[in-house]
Amino acid sequence: MGNDIDRAGVAKAYARWAPIYDLVFGKVFDSGRQSTIAVADAIGGRVLDVGVGTGLSLSDYSPTTRLCGVDISEPMLRKAQERVRALKLSNVDVLGVMDAKNLAFPDGFFDAVVAQYVITAVPDPEATLDDFVRVLKPGGELILVNHIGAESGPRKLFELAFAPLARRLGWRPEFPWARLVNWAARHGGVTLEERRPMPPMGHFSLIRYRKA
């Protein structure tokens, strides 16, 4: 797949979203956020939250879960840092500006990697997923929540029509399930544990992979 969105464009788009992100997306994405956090907390240990954004999720994790958060957008991350200070979240070890495809962590460092609404907003989803798995311990889990494009029908037509605008806003709306299936088969080191529809209207999915 070609890189149909670019890193600079995504960073610029989310810098624009930073002042209003919580207001616009807070409630819409809440079910997916809470579901991924519940899975990560059940695993425990050290968790990486990729695309941590304004840190909206950080206070919902168990205080016994050790957290590292990264994001491509410095303005978003500044808000996350303010939230950590204001709420005295002592279980947050690191917040850093980082490219999701080139994580500055060693191999096998995390018990779980959480990526909420990230995969459709990166230039190279497959390479990004590869790096997520790289930093996982054997037996660790990759926990995604993401929009999955429709296979057919009116919603697919809408997603295709909306795609050029969506890219300018920082994501691709027509991301098909087949891309994840093909990635997992090519990678060979992960097993699909769960795919669960999420609100609103099942347009999003909670997706869990276990590293061999």
From TrEMBL:
Keywords: Methyltransferase, Transferase. Residues 48-144 form the Methyltransferase type domain. Gene3D superfamilies: Vaccinia Virus protein VP39. Its EC number is 2.1.1.17, 2.1.1.71. One of its GO terms (biological process) is methylation. Pfam families: Methyltransf_11 (PF08241). GO terms for molecular function: phosphatidyl-N-methylethanolamine N-methyltransferase activity; phosphatidylethanolamine N-methyltransferase activity. InterPro entries: Methyltransf_11, SAM-dependent_MTases_sf. The keyword Hydrolase does not apply. This is Phosphatidylethanolamine/phosphatidyl-N-methylethanolamine N-methyltransferase.
